[in-house]
Amino acid sequence: MAAESTPSTRSQTLTLNDVRHVAMLSRLALNDDHLKRLTAQLESILGYVAKIGEVDVSGVEPMAHALPLHNVFREDVVEPSLPLDKVLMNAPETDGPFFKVPKVIGGDEDSAG
User: How confident is the model at residue 76 (pLDDT cuts 50, 70, 90)?
Assistant: First the structure.
């Protein structure tokens, strides 16, 4: 398999050993029948890629998306906050005006050393 594969330089065909090598790099265990089938399929795919490479795109601007994207966020509007009793209403445990949660970092098993 050629290191660079452009439409003008890609004249050699994909070999069974090329596909076997790619399968090995991909950590895929494939039998010879499967490798033969994949060789033909990959050769066909590379042919399509080479055909796409022949298109003149000199006047086309690069893009990140096929469709124009617009900001979908709403305007930021300042509104009154919820009252503290409503905020804490569904909390499993509270400690005054705070949520009470189990200790995650710095427990007894962390400070033993």
Answer: confident
CA distances from 6 to 16, 45, 53, 113 (A): 21, 14, 7, 60
Nearest to 16 by CA among 4, 26, 30: 30
What's the gap between Cα 99 and its chain centre? 36
In the chain, the amino acid numbered 79 is E
* Class of the CATH-defined domain 1-55: mainly alpha
Output DSSP code: residue 94: E
Q: Are 97 and 84 in contact (CB under 8 A)?
A: yes
Query: How is the chain split into domains, by residue range?
Result: 1-55
pLDDT confidence band for 75 (50 / 70 / 90): confident
Cα(46)–Cα(2) distance, integer angstroms: 12
CA distance 43 to 14: 6
Evaluate whether 15 touches 39 at the Cβ level (below 8 Å).
Answer: yes
